[in-house]
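Re-run with default settings, no changes from the original entry. Doing this only to confirm the output is reproducible before filing.
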Amino acid sequence: MSSPTPSSPQRTLTAVYAWLLLLPAMLILLAFTHLPTITTLIDSFYSTPKGRRAASWVGLENYAVMAADPIFWKALFNNLWYALASIPLSIGLALLMALWVNEKLIGRGFLRLAFFTPTVLPMIAVANIWLFFFTPQYGLLERLMLALGFGSHNWLGDPSTALACVILVAVWKEAGLFMIFYLAALQSFNPSLREAAAIEGTPRWTFFWRVQWPLLMPTTLFVLVNSVINAFRTVDHLFVLTRGGPDNASTLLLYRLYEVGFKYWDTAGAAALTMVLVVLLVGVTLLQFFTVDKKVHYQ
């Protein structure tokens, strides 16, 4: 017996009720996401107001100045390397940790807590911890290198290693959070899958590659999107570790945006840089959803 069709007033009341439920979230998105983005886009086409001089229309001049700035291209290049290194490292490490602590181990709860602890620490605190590790002469890493017979090295003061140190700190901080998502996904799998593989004598690597990894693809997509966003919005630990140095070797886009907007007080230039960053993030996210999403759902 088919259910009765709702009347027109009832459908209207249901639609109004649904929109009222969505209204708070829509207002928050409008006030703190969409309107600031539109305002920033408009500001990027005006000059920076100075004292009594009001902002004036300059068109694409702010973008031209930014394109002619070698530090901008250095920051963009550094950020791309930062993303290419930190994203696979953090995701791979998170997956390995999740697979390990998902097994029946002695002290498994302690291991999970130890892996997750860096995630709950503020990035400034994490940066100060690693600053002690990287300090020349008496830092923990330096003492270890000297004990192994290697010479002293200024890890944060060398342009060839400064960015790598920043990447290492970010991976240590983020891998624990991604591990939680992978661990939750692994625990949601039907135990009969592992039992059937054990009966068939399937090697552990084959079971992971043929069964677990395909089932983990939705979680991987979620983690991948978040890791890409994190890779382009990293700025906290740079203030403690390197301040973008030496010679802009570790300057990232968001730190460059801070310098332009708050150190040099060029708000129009910062607005243009913000729009480039937004377009870059939106483009990468859309690329992920239109390419990786097909593999996630086996299309």
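The chain has two domains: 1-43, 60-296. The chain has a mean pLDDT of 87.
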